[in-house]
Amino acid sequence: MASSTRVHPAEITGIHGGLIKTMSRRMLGQVPDAVGVMWHYPALLKDMIRFGRRADSWNRLDRNLASFATMAAAAAVGCSFCLDFHYFMTHHRGLDEAKAREVPRWRESTVFTPLERRVMEYAEGMCRTPLTVTDEMSAALLDELGAPALLELTARVGAMNLTARTNIALGIRSQEFAASCGLPPLALRSTDGVARA
């Protein structure tokens, strides 16, 4: 299958490359094109993996809220790879799949609590240029979540912006991880008529 990425994936070689391929296949069932693209600069890929693993250990924000915020950021930026990957990871981590499926159209969906909506609104606000995060939004989340969880939320959304915008610029698209494990398709974003998944 020919890659549609803007930088053709490199052949992943060496001991470390072999470990990354094994880990990818074990976790995802395949080696994503993104890994091959980033293999052109292995040190960069290693640093991004290391950061991702450390971010996975953060634990001040509820795991479902973290998942919804990350997916809302991916949807706002338009990264189909990130949105699909995080929906897939929601399934594998035993989080709320039904709500995760609805994240791209969270404003219209009736499944989310007021707090979940505030978290996704904050995530979207961080993804806009200029940012639309307000003092009121921050104060409400600070009151409900506490400072450590708000800091984690902000860092997770910032990291998703880095990842999503990198993927989009490099032409890295969804590889349908969610479909491979039998998840129903993500709900389509209806406010602007653009499907994000």
Write structural notes for this entry:
By secondary structure, the protein is mostly helical. It folds into two domains: 11-57; 61-197, AhpD-like. 62% of the residues lie in helices and 0% in strands. Helix 7 (114-127) crosses helix 8 (135-145) and helix 7 (114-127) crosses helix 9 (147-170). The chain starts with 13 loop residues before the first helix and ends in a 17-residue tail after the last helix. The relative contact order is 0.17. The model is unreliable at 192-197 (pLDDT under 50).
Q: What does the main sheet amount to?
A: none
Q: Any low-confidence stretches, pLDDT <50, length ≥5?
A: 192-197
User: Residue-averaged pLDDT, rounded?
Assistant: 92
N-to-C series of helices and strands: HHHHHHHHHH
Bulk shape: globular
- Distance from first to last alpha carbon: 21 Å
Structural class: mainly alpha
Task: Work out the radius of gyration.
Answer: 17 Å
Helicity, as a percent range = 55-70%
| CATH class term of the largest domain | Mainly Alpha
CATH architecture annotation name of the largest domain: Up-down Bundle
Strand content: under 5%
Question: Could you outline the blueprint of secondary structure elements for this entry?
Answer:
Blueprint: H1 14-28, H2 33-38, H3 42-56, H4 63-77, H5 80-92, H6 97-102, H7 114-127, H8 135-145, H9 147-170, H10 177-180
Helix pairs in contact: 4-5, 4-7, 4-9, 7-8, 7-9, 8-9
